[in-house]
Amino acid sequence: MVHPVPTLPVVAPDPLISDLQAYIVGGAVRDALLGLPAGDRDWVVVGATPEQMVQKGFIPVGDDFPVFLHPKTKEEYALARTERKSGRGYKGFTFYTGQDVTLEEDLYRRDLTINAIAQTPDGQLVDPLNGLADIEARVLRHIGEAFCEDPVRLLRLARFAARFTHFSIAPETLNLARRLVTDGEVDALVPERVWREVSRGLISEAPYRMFDVLAETGALQRVMPGLNFDGAARRSLQCAARRHLPLASCAALFCFSSSNPDTVLRAVKAPSHCVDYARLLPVVGAQMGAAQTADDYLALIEQCDGLRKPERFLDLVAAACCLGNQFSGVEESLSQTWAVRLDAVRAVDGGSIAKRHQGKPQAIKDAVRQARLAALAGM
Questions:
Q1: CB crowding 84-122: b at 16 or more within 10 Å, else e
Q2: In which domain, by residue range, is 50 found?
Q3: How confident is the model at residue 63 (pLDDT cuts 50, 70, 90)?
Q4: CB neighbours of 272 closer than 8 A, spacing ≥ 6?
Q5: Domains in the chain, number
Q6: Which pLDDT band holds residue 308 (cuts at 50, 70, 90)?
Q7: Which UniProt keyword terms apply here (predicted)?
Q8: What count of other Cβ atoms lies within 10 Å of the Cβ of residue 354?
């Protein structure tokens, strides 16, 4: 089905693709239909060979199947392909990219109908799977039974639920997602791929929905062993999303209720700074509310290495404000108070103090500490 869609932008003429059957596909088309900001565009080329693409100047970059970069725009152009299940996990597929593969066949191998819409350069839609109807109905729906062959699709379904907060998941799609768990396909996921999807979901509009979906399908403990995602963690993530906290803060919050938060993140190969946030957030959460004196304030700042890493310390304070209800309603003012305290401590001129106590390391250390305490006490 080809429909005129005047709301989608027409692509500027490009001589390099003028004689190719090239279509914009996937997220760029979906987001344009939803009125969301434009992201990276991906293209599918029908009826071409790898040799023809190289002759035109496209740069081959694909490992598993032919993908090329446009020499000027650097956008990705993949040859239309079909796939057949040939092993376990998300890499257990054999791809076919012959010139006889149609656009419709390529779209049919995708995960969800809303991601299986193509756009011609002149702004027309190709929508053989009625993805536009599901966008209008705000439904996340699988395309075919092959959905339950690729465990990454379960992670993506959960991530899309976190991003598109007004979309529901079709019941039959949830059933197929559960099959990915019961059939053991999710056990073939590698930690890096789990983190790639989870990290994107954590900075979505409603990150808690991702974990709700994983829990509902029985996948949560299989893909993130040791994670305890309870009501408190859910509320904390809601707070983090509302305050637009950075990824590392969200990572620390979603596993805060777990017995070993940093271990949960290490298991999925999360970046070291996210692991550090998870390790330090319990310290900040326990001590921030109890701190009453200059000694308390300085002890917490020093324990979290706030003098050398002020941005991380303030991120942790902001994340701690999302824990429980003890700081409810005063998050912004409390974060600002700690920012002022940190500035006061960092403003102490250690160099001048060292000159006054030259050659006396312990005297310098004691004098610097007293100056910092005095700065905090004088606020």
A1: eeeeebbebbebebeeebebebbbebbbbbbbbbbbbbe
A2: 1-133
A3: confident
A4: none
A5: 1
A6: very high
A7: ATP-binding, Magnesium, Metal-binding, Nucleotide-binding, Nucleotidyltransferase, RNA repair, RNA-binding, Transferase, tRNA processing
A8: 17
Decide if 54 is inside a domain.
Answer: yes
82 bridge partner residues? 96
Distance, in Å, from the CA atom of 60 to the CA atom of 171, rounded to the nearest integer, reads: 40
Strand, helix or coil for residue 95: strand
Percent of the chain past pLDDT 70, that is, above it, reads 93
Helix axes 294-303, 361-377, angle to 10 degrees: 120
Q: Taking each helix axis as running N to C, give the angle between helix 208-216 and helix 231-242, from 0 to 180 degrees, rounded to the nearest 10.
A: 150
Cβ contacts of residue 178 below 8 Å, gap of 6+? Answer: 217, 218
| CATH at 47 | 3.30.460.10
Only one residue has tokens 């995708």, namely: 110
Q: For residues 233 and 129, what is the distance between their CA atoms, to the nearest angstrom?
A: 37
pTM: 0.87
88 inside domain: yes
Q: Is residue 11 part of a domain?
A: yes
Around Cβ 211, how many Cβ atoms within 10 Å?
24
CA–CA gap between residue 302 and residue 290 (Å, rounded): 16
Contacts of 308 (CB under 8 A, 6+ apart): none
In order, the DSSP letters of 270-321 are --HHHHHHHHHHHHHHHHHTT--SHHHHHHHHHHTTTTT-HHHHHHHHHHHT
CB contact set of 332 (below 8 Å; sequence gap of 6+): none
Which class for 243: exposed (0-12), middle (13-18), buried (19 or more C-beta within 10 A)? middle
Does residue 343 fall inside a structural domain? no
> Per the structure block, which two tokens stand in for 205?
């509009």
14 contacts 37 by C-beta, under 8 angstroms: no
Q: What residues form DSSP beta bridges with 140?
A: 169
Least confident segment among 34-38, 69-73, 151-155, 312-316: 34-38
For the segment 223-239, the average pLDDT, to the nearest whole number, is 93
Query: Which residue bears the tokens 């768990």?
Result: 181
Task: With residue 2 as reference, give the H or E element that holds it.
Answer: strand 2-4
